[in-house]
Amino acid sequence: MSDESARRPHQATKPSARGSDSTGTRSVGPGDVVGQHFRLDELLKKGGMGRVYRATDLRLGEPVALKLMDPAIVGTERARARFFREAQTAARLRSKNVVQLLDFNVDAATQVPYIAMELLRGEDLAQRIARGPLSYEETKAILGDVCSAIAKAHRMDIIHRDIKPANVFLVEDDDGPLCKVLDFGIVKLGDLGLDPQGAPQTDAGATLGTVSYMSPEQIADARGVDLRADLWSIGVIAYECMTGQRPFRGESLFELVHKICFDVPAPPSRLADVPSGFDAWFARATHREIDRRFTSARELIEALRALAGRPPEPPLPLPRPSPPEPPTNQSWASDANQIDIGALKDLTFKNAVVREFLDSANKHFVSGSKGLGKTLLLTYKRSVLSEIYLAATGRERRHAAVQFIPEGRPYLDLMGDLPTVDQTRSDLMSGLHECKRLWSFSFRMSIVSYQSAATGAAGAGDPADLAPLPRSLRGLLEGRPVEPTMVLKELLSLTVRQINQVVDAMERPLERRLRSLHSGVFIFIDKLDQALRRLPRAAWIHMQAGMIEAAWDLMNANRHVKIFATIREEAFSAYESDIKTNLYGATSTLRYAKHELFELLEKLTYYYERLPLREFIHLDVVSAGRSARAESTFDFLHRHTLGRPRDLVILASEISRNRKALDERTFTQIVQSTSAGLLVANIFDEMRVFLEVLCHRDKRARFLGLLPCDVLTHDEVVEVWCRFHEVDRAFYDAHGRDADDVYHPFRELFECGLLGVLGADPGTERQVQRFRQPHDAVVGSRHELPRSRYYLLHPSLRALIEPLPGGGRFHAIRHVIIGHGEPWPRHWDLVVDVQRELFRRPDADEEIGGAVFSLLDRLATEIADGEGPDAARRAIAASPTFARLSAHLERIHWDDLHLTLLELFAGERREETEPTDRVEVAMLLIDIVRSTHMIRSIGDTGFVDHLHRLRGSLRGATNPRLLKGTGDGYLAVYPTVARAVDAARVLRRAVDDPAQLRLVVHWGWVRMSDHDVIGTEVHRLFRIEAVTEEDRADEPSSGIGLPRPGRVTLSRSAAAALPDPSRADFRRAGAFRLKGFDDPESIWVEIDEVDKVDEIDARP
Question: Sign of torsion, CA 438 439 442 448?
Answer without folding.
Answer: negative
